[in-house]
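fold-stage: in
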Amino acid sequence: MDRTEAAPPPLRVGLIGYGLAGSVFHGPLIAATPDLTLDTVVTGHPERRAQVHAEHGSDMRTLATTDELFARAGSLDLVVVASPNRTHVPLARRALEAGLPVVVDKPLAATAAEAQQLASLAAEQGLLLSVFHNRRWDNDFRTVRALMADGALGDRVHRLESRYERWRPELKGGWRESGDPAEVGGLLYDLGSHLVDQALTLLGPVTAVYAEADVRRHGAEADDDAFIALTHAGGVRSHLWMSAVAAQLGPRFRVLGSEAAYVKDGLDPQEAALREGARPTPGSRWGVEPEIAWGTIGDLDARRPVPTLDGDYPAYYEGIATALREGTSPPVTAAEALAVIRVLEAARTSARESRVVTTGLA
């Protein structure tokens, strides 16, 4: 007789928000994770509810309010907060108080104090709190991390240069471009969240922060062109650019080492693929980049192409499922997310006061 234990049912996920984050990233990636099932989507927009049903089936449960979601908290195993930034803290707190693990889209909070309060609450409740810093699974970042681990750039890295630049001279409108501090808009906290998280992941804690944040476009209210310089505890410097007004784009990565440099142009293909309706499937390659897009490594005298590792956004929610099943750390911890907010908060102070802000870690 086959006494093999039956696999447990998938963990049930409630997704709050079905805008860009919910529809392009979280919804598809949750649905593609074998150990998770998208159980409920909360959106107050009738057209977005129709989109949910078109993309996830007519029987997908949709709710108009978070009150309805939390009223049935006992039927869920995880809540994902993919709603506007101003709602991240109150909704994450409400999920934790309801006894539910929670994933929050970046940024976790506007201030380090708020982020610390959430992290402390999660620890007190013994619940998972993670932030969707999916760009750790970009193909180029995975490649940089592997090159550094292998010593391909030399025995030390001098400087990390990293950019997320766009050419969007016309305003699109919406809360992301609002000047209201409560909205937590602007590129410093948007694209900057990814860039800072990547720098901390690669190079460790930061001792000093210098930043510039400008409003360039006519009629804009939130920063749309920013720069952050980080001094890491090990002495390496990170220079990070984020812009909506880059008519020509700089390299995505330029990493300078003691023996060689790695330079990579272009963007990871996963977001574009998800926007176009492609979905990762188990057993099939995902996030694959053509050879023509590979970066190069070397010096002025000799350079060679470096195959770009495949992107792997599905790894994030696979890691979340494992953490929930086995009680292990999530792929992005609350402490790591808090460290990002501390740097962003210091960057905002630096830009406002035109000075270097020290973190007290020296």
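fold-stage: in (second)
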Amino acid sequence: MGILNKLDAHIEPFESGNILITSADKLLNWSRLNSMWQMFFGLACCAIEMMATSASHYDLDRFGIIPRPSPRHIDIILISGTVTLKMATRIKRLWEQMPEPKYCISMGSCANCGGPYWEHGYHVLKGVDRIIPVDVYVPGCPPRPEALLEGLIKLQEKIRTQSLAKKVN
């Protein structure tokens, strides 16, 4: 009985306590945007900048972004470089294996619109958005690591305002 009396003495009123009231959407979005698991799909020279962004100098871990090798465990697929028609089928298959909610970042001119190869290349896809939906485009040839970080922050802002209950496929 003595321990219960001590516990009751430390309980504060509701107004001054450390109680947080929020919606389920806000709680889920907060947890999702602070623990984004991604798969890098580097196809050309943009992959070098993508790897530089993942290195210790830019420290993606501080944003909660962790690379994972399996599409079954990721939230984001980051496509960078020239997407050929042969690779497009592989990207589509990886996209279909990802669990919902899933996001795509297109990095660089080649992934965004075919880059300098689309006009004369019969084998180049004219943008990855022709096979999978893209949430954030990061422009550049190749884009700097700071541009990729900005794209990831834009995706976090999008996730913050999303409602999972009202999401329509």
